[in-house]
Design goal:
Elements (H helix, E strand, L loop, with lengths): L6 E2 L17 E2 H19 L5 H17 L14 E4 L5 H11 L6 H5 L29 H20 L7 E6 H5 L1 H12 L5 E7 L2 E2 L2 E2 L8 H7 L3 E6 L3 H12 L5 E6 L22 H11 L10 H12 L2 H12 L3 H12 L4 H17 L6 H15 L3 E5 L3 H4 L18 E3 L4 H14 L3 E7 L3 H14 L4 E5 L17 H6 L5 E3 L4 H13 L5 E4 L23 E4 L7 E5 L3 H14 L4 E5 L3 H6 L2 H8 L4 E5 L8 H4 L4 E3 L10 H7 L4 H11 L4
Helix pairs in contact: 1-2, 1-3, 1-10, 2-3, 2-9, 5-7, 5-17, 7-17, 14-15, 14-20, 15-20, 17-18, 21-26
Bound molecules: thiamine diphosphate and magnesium ion.
The site of magnesium ion (MG) has 5 residues, from strand 6.
C-alpha cells in the first residue's frame, strides 16, 4: 500500500513572492505522511481521537493545500481567502496538522501535543471560536457541507456587489457520514439549483463508517446523486496525487458545483487497521503505529517533522502571498466609499445611524397610526424600513414567504442568473437553510435572516444550536407561534418550542407582543453581533399596546412593566407575545374586583436574565401573587414566577379550530387568568 509516487514542484513561479528561496522538490508522499504521523501520534498521546480520516485523506488534503487552496496562514481573516471546511469534524487532526505544517500561528507543535486537552487550540472537533483559521465548527455530520453552501452563496452575493475583490472558492472535505445525513440533500440541492460553481466538495469515499463497511447501511451512488442535483461529479483514486490534481484543475473552471469522490483507504498506512472501522475513532496503539511507521517509511520519532519536509510545507503555506498582495492592491484601488463599506460589513459593524433612523421611523409611524396587526405583519412592516437601511441583510424563507412575511416589496430573489438578489427562496429545506445561514454569517459581510413556522424550529435545531455555540448573528423569523394559528391544528401548533429554544445557551428567543415590540426586537437581534436570535411571531392580529412614541427600546431589558397597577400591586401578571394583551384584559377584570394588578411584558427571557440585578428585581416586583401567561408549556417560567406562581398556558398539544375557540378551549382567557390569581389570593 503506497500512495502513487509523485513529486510536487512547490510554490509555482507565478505564485511565489520574488524573494522566496527556490522550493525544494519534496515527494508528495513524504508531505502527506507528515500529516499521517502527526495524526496518529497526537491521537495516541491524547488516548482518544480519530486517526482514520486524516491518514486516509492526507493525499487529497496535501494536493489541495499545496497546489490549489488560496490561503495565507499569516492572515487567517483575509477576506478573499478560499474557505476550507472540514465537514467531517471528527477528522480534526487533519486540519490541525495542515495548519501547523503550513504555518498558522494558532496551531503550534505544542498545541498538537495538547490535542483534546482543556484549553488547547486543538479541541476534539474543530471550533472556529477557539482556533484562528478554522472556518466553522464541525462535528455534527452534514453541517459543515451545508455551511459551505452558505459560504459559497455569500461569496457570489458579495461579488455581485463588490466585484473582483470577492473572488474565492469554497472547498469541503466531506465523509460518508456527511453525505448520509439528510441535511446534505437539502444542501446539495440548493447548491445545484443556484449553480454555485465555486463550491468544490472532496468526498472522502472510504466506504467505512463506525459500524463497519458502508454496505451495511447504504448503497447510494453518490456521483449519480450529485449529478441529479445539478453538480458536476467524478471519481478519482484518492491516493493518486496526479489524478486528484487533475480533477481539482478541471473543477476550477466549472459552471456548477463540483463533487470529486476520492476513493481512499481509511487509516492509510496502518498495517492491520487500514481499510477498517477500527481505525476510525480510537488510537491505533503502539504496535500498529510502529507498523505504520515502517509501512509508510516514516522513521522519525513522534511529533518530529524533518526539516526539509516542514520547510516544503511552510513554502506551501506561502504560496498565496503573491495572490494576497495582488488582492491588497485591487482592494486599495477600490473607490474609498466602497472599500469602507466592504470593511464595515466584513467587520460586522452595523450602519448604526441608518439602523437607528429606520427604527425611529417605524416607531413614529406606529405612534401616529397604530396598527392592530399580527406580529408577522409587524415584522414585515419593520423590514420595509430595516432592509434598505441595513444592506447586509439577506432574507429568505423555506417556502413560506407569504406566511412568514420576510420578503419586502423591493427585494429581488437571488438566482443563478442574479446573485445580487437579497431574498433567498430556500425551498422546503429548513435544516439546510439554517445551516447555510450559519455559513453566510461565518463568511462575513452578510446578516442572514429567514423564515419558517416556529413548529419547524425542530427541523433547524441542530444548526441553530451550532449558531449559538459559534456565536453567529443569524436571525430566524418563526411565525405561527402558538395555538393562535388555529385551524392547521396540533401538528403545526408549537407548544414546547419556546421552552426548547430557550434552553439553548447563547440564543435569544424574542416573542414580541405588538408592532412596537416587534421592531424593538428586530433592532436587538440585529445588534446582537455574537449570537443568533429567533423571533417568534403570531399569525393572528394583536392590538398595538404601546401607542406613544418612545425612543428607548423597552425590550432591551428582556421585560418591562407595560401596564402599572392602580395602587400597590397585589398581583404581577407576566406574559409574552399574543398573551400580553390578554393579560391586560385580565388586569381590568381584577381591577373591577378591587385587586390591583400590574402587567409585565416578557419579550425575551435571556435579556431579562442578563439585566442588572436591581433592574430585574424592579421588573419582577414584589406583588405577593405572580402569574405567568403564555400559550405554551410552563417549563422555564418558574425562573420568573417562582415555583409557587400560577401559570396559564398549555399542558398538552393543541387542536384544530378557529383560534378564538382554541384560546377558550385551553383556558387562556382574561377570565382564566383573573381566576387563577383570585384563587392564589384566596378570594375564590
Ligand atoms: C449527526 C451526527 N451523527 C452521528 C455522529 C457520530 N459519528 C461521528 S463520525 C460517524 C461516522 C463515521 O463515518 P464517516 O463519516 O464515513 O467517517 P470515517 O469513519 O470514514 O472517518 C458518526 C456516526 C456525528 N458526529 N454526527
Ligand atoms: Mg467513511
Amino acid at each position: 500500500m503506497t500512495a502513487k509516487a509523485s513529486t510536487l514542484a512547490m510554490a509555482p513561479a507565478d505564485m511565489a513572492p520574488a524573494d522566496m528561496a527556490p522550493a525544494p522538490a519534496i515527494a508528495h508522499a513524504r508531505m502527506a505522511n507528515a500529516i499521517r504521523a502527526l495524526a496518529m501520534d497526537a491521537v495516541e498521546q491524547a488516548k482518544s481521537g480519530h486517526p482514520g480520516l486524516p491518514m486516509g485523506a492526507a493525499d487529497v488534503a496535501t494536493v489541495l493545500f499545496t497546489q490549489f487552496l488560496k490561503f495565507d496562514p499569516a492572515d487567517p481573516a483575509w477576506a478573499d481567502r478560499d474557505r476550507f471546511v472540514l465537514s467531517a469534524g471528527h477528522g480534526s487532526m487533519l486540519l490541525y496538522a495542515l495548519m501547523y505544517l503550513t504555518g498558522y500561528a494558532s496551531v503550534t507543535l505544542d498545541e498538537i501535543k495538547r490535542f483534546r486537552q482543556l484549553g488547547s487550540k486543538t479541541p476534539g472537533h474543530p471550533e472556529n471560536f477557539v482556533t484562528a483559521g478554522i472556518e466553522t465548527t464541525t462535528g455534527p455530520l452534514g453541517q459543515g457541507l451545508a455551511n459551505a453552501v452558505g459560504m459559497a452563496i455569500a461569496e457570489r452575493h458579495l461579488a455581485a456587489e463588490f466585484g473582483a475583490v470577492v473572488d474565492h472558492k469554497t472547498y469541503v472535505l466531506a465523509s460518508d457520514g456527511d453525505l448520509m445525513e439528510g441535511i446534505s440533500q437539502e444542501a446539495i440541492a440548493l447548491a445545484g439549483h443556484l449553480k454555485l460553481n465555486r463550491l468544490i466538495v472532496l468526498f472522502d469515499d472510504n466506504g467505512i463508517s463506525i459500524d463497519g463497511a458502508l454496505s451495511l447501511s447504504d448503497s447510494v451512488d453518490q456521483v449519480k446523486r450529485f449529478e441529479a442535483a445539478g453538480w458536476s461529479a467524478s471519481r478519482v483514486d484518492g491516493h493518486d496525487p496526479a489524478a486528484i490534481a487533475a480533477a481539482l484543475s478541471k473543477a476550477q473552471g466549472a459552471d456548477r458545483p463540483v463533487l470529486i469522490a476520492c476513493k481512499t483507504t481509511i487509516g492509510f498506512g496502518a498495517p492491520n487497521k487500514a481499510g477498517k472501522a477500527s481505525s476510525h475513532g480510537s488510537p491505533l496503539g503502539a504496535d500498529e503505529i510502529k507498523g505504520a511507521r515502517e509501512k509508510l517509511g516514516w522513521a522519525h520519532p513522534p511529533f518530529e517533522i524533518p526539516a526539509d519536509i516542514l520547510s516544503a510545507w511552510r513554502i506551501a503555506g506561502q504560496r498565496s502571498k503573491a495572490a494576497h498582495a495582488e488582492w491588497n492592491k485591487r482592494f486599495a484601488a477600490l473607490d474609498a466609499a466602497k472599500r469602507a463599506e466592504f470593511e464595515r460589513r466584513m467587520r460586522g459593524d452595523l450602519p448604526a445611524q441608518a439602523l437607528a433612523g429606520a427604527v425611529d421611523a417605524v416607531k413614529k409611524s406606529l405612534a401616529a397610526t397604530p396598527k392592530d396587526i399580527a406580529t408577522r405583519s409587524a415584522s414585515e412592516f419593520a423590514l420595509e424600513s430595516l432592509v434598505p437601511a441595513v444592506p447586509e441583510m439577506v432574507g429568505g424563507s423555506a417556502d413560506l414567504t407569504g406566511s412568514n412575511n420576510t420578503r419586502t416589496k423591493t427585494m429581488v430573489a437571488m438566482s443563478a442568473s442574479d446573485y445580487s438578489g437579497r431574498f433567498i427562496h430556500y425551498g422546503i429545506r429548513e435544516h439546510g437553510m439554517a445551516a447555510a445561514m450559519n455559513g453566510m454569517a461565518l463568511h462575513g459581510g452578510i446578516i442572514p435572516y429567514s423564515g419558517t413556522f416556529l413548529v419547524f424550529s425542530d427541523y433547524c435545531r441542530p444548526s441553530i444550536r451550532l449558531a449559538a455555540l459559534m456565536g453567529e448573528r443569524v436571525i430566524h423569523v418563526m411565525t405561527h407561534d402558538s395555538i393562535g394559528l388555529g385551524e392547521d391544528g396540533p401538528t403545526h401548533e408549537p407548544v414546547e418550542h419556546l421552552a426548547a429554544l430557550r434552553v439553548i445557551p447563547n440564543l435569544l428567543v424574542f416573542r414580541p407582543a405588538d408592532a412596537v415590540e416587534t421592531v424593538e426586537c428586530w433592532q436587538l437581534a440585529l445588534q446582537s453581533r455574537d449570537r443568533p436570535s429567533v423571533l417568534a411571531l403570531t399569525r393572528q392580529n394583536l392590538p398595538q399596546l404601546s401607542q406613544n412614541f418612545l425612543d428607548t427600546n423597552r425590550c432591551a431589558t428582556g421585560a418591562y412593566e407595560i401596564a402599572a397597577a392602580d395602587g400597590k400591586a397585589r398581583v404581577s401578571i407576566f406574559a409574552s407575545g399574543s398573551e400580553v394583551s390578554i393579560a391586560v384584559e385580565a388586569k381590568k377584570l381584577l381591577a373591577a374586583k378591587s385587586v390591583p394588578a400590574r402587567v409585565v411584558s416578557v419579550p425575551c427571557f435571556e435579556l431579562l436574565a442578563e439585566a442588572p440585578e436591581a433592574v430585574r428585581r424592579a421588573i419582577i416586583g414584589d406583588a405577593p401573587v405572580k402569574v405567568g401567561v403564555e400559550a405554551a408549556v410552563r417549563q422555564g417560567w418558574d425562573t420568573i414566577i417562582g415555583s409557587e406562581g400560577a401559570f396559564v398556558g398549555m399542558t398538552s398539544f393543541g387542536a384544530s379550530a378557529p383560534y378564538k375557540d382554541l384560546y377558550k378551549h385551553f383556558g387562556i382567557t382574561p377570565e382564566a387568568i383573573a381566576d387563577a390569581e383570585l384563587s392564589k389570593l384566596g378570594k375564590q
